[in-house]
Amino acid sequence: MKLNSIKYEKSDGVAKITKDNPPQYGMTLEVLLEMKKTLEDAANDEDISVIVISAGGEGFHLGAVVFGEVKNKDWNLTPVEFREISQFARDIFLYIENLEKPVIGVAKAGAVGGGFENLHACDFVIAAEEAKFSQPEVKLGLCTGWGGSQRLTRMVGWRKAKELLLTGIEIDGKEAERIGAITKAVPLDQVDQEVEKLCDRLKICAPVAWGYEKLSMNKVWETDYKTGLNFEIEAWGMVNSEGEFNADVFDDFLNGRQPKFKKRKKITSDWNK
């Protein structure tokens, strides 16, 4: 797979997707296209259990550099052209959100705009305490277009989301963790170690059960309470029919041993659509 703006590594059950397009490390069209390719490759590789998305350089996720590429610096696009670009990025982030394997976002320096929206779609986000995060679109004559208004509001609540989205204020990693915008903030020199620990915890989970649990949780955002409960019942039935849980697994659990589960590629096919 030829890649120019993404560094893609696979080792010990983990696929690492790193934005590698200095000096800005922003969300260019090429980055989006290559992210799509590498995500699909990791999703269909049975040896990959966890996917990690990070940014090169100092580890800062810049936003939509993509627009400047399309028509130089004028951004003289029609509403249809803007919408097509936004839909492409949206579909990639939806793919992350519905991917049946764990996706960890890593932000050592922080994220802004579309870069922050990329992290919103991840299952977990580990950041440095001093990292800086913001959705500054309203201060630039823009608005969020890659899911920020929807995901961030659901994650942090109505009032806090209004403060972040409607003033464009910047927060650090500690505050981002406190309000629920990221999973955990740690000192900069501990970020890699924290990501590795999380990968180890995720790699021992049963892949089919994990995938269905994530899809069930996604229904909290997508539908009403009763429909979500019905979806959970269906998920319960599908997971049990896969046979991951059995007498040997239960015996291992009771005796403090780590159960061994079969590797899987794609898990639920069209069932969750």
Question: Could you characterize what this model shows?
Answer:
- It is a single chain.
- The protein is built from eleven helices and eleven strands.
- The protein is of the alpha/beta class.
- It folds into two domains: 6-203, 2-enoyl-CoA Hydratase, Chain A, domain 1 (Alpha-Beta Complex), CATH 3.90.226.10; 207-254.
- The strands form two sheets. The protein has a six-stranded mixed β-sheet, with helices on both faces. Strands 4-7-9-10 form a four-stranded mixed β-sheet.
- β2, α1 (29-43) and β3 (50-55) form a beta-alpha-beta unit.
- The chain is globular.
- Mean pLDDT is 89; it is low at 67-73 and 269-273.
Instruction: Name the helicity range.
Output: 40-55%
User: CATH architecture of the largest domain, please?
Assistant: Alpha-Beta Complex
User: In CATH, what is the homologous superfamily of the largest domain?
Assistant: 2-enoyl-CoA Hydratase, Chain A, domain 1
For the report, how would you describe the main beta sheet? 6 strands, mixed
Secondary-structure element order, N to C: EEHEEHEHEEHEEHHEHEHHHH
The class by helix and strand makeup works out as alpha/beta
How many E strands?
11
Spatial shape:
globular
Number of domains: 2
- Return Rg in Å: 19 Å
CATH class of the largest domain: Alpha Beta
- The strands making up the biggest β-sheet line up spatially as 1-2-3-6-8-11
Mean pLDDT: 89
Topology:
Elements: E1 6-11, E2 14-19, H1 29-43, E3 50-55, E4 60-61, H2 66-70, E5 71-73, H3 79-98, E6 103-107, E7 110-112, H4 114-120, E8 124-128, E9 132-134, H5 148-156, H6 158-167, E10 170-172, H7 173-179, E11 184-186, H8 191-203, H9 207-222, H10 225-242, H11 247-254
Parallel strand pairs: 2-3, 3-6, 4-7, 6-8, 7-9, 8-11
Antiparallel strand pairs: 1-2, 9-10
Helix pairs in contact: 1-3, 5-6, 9-10
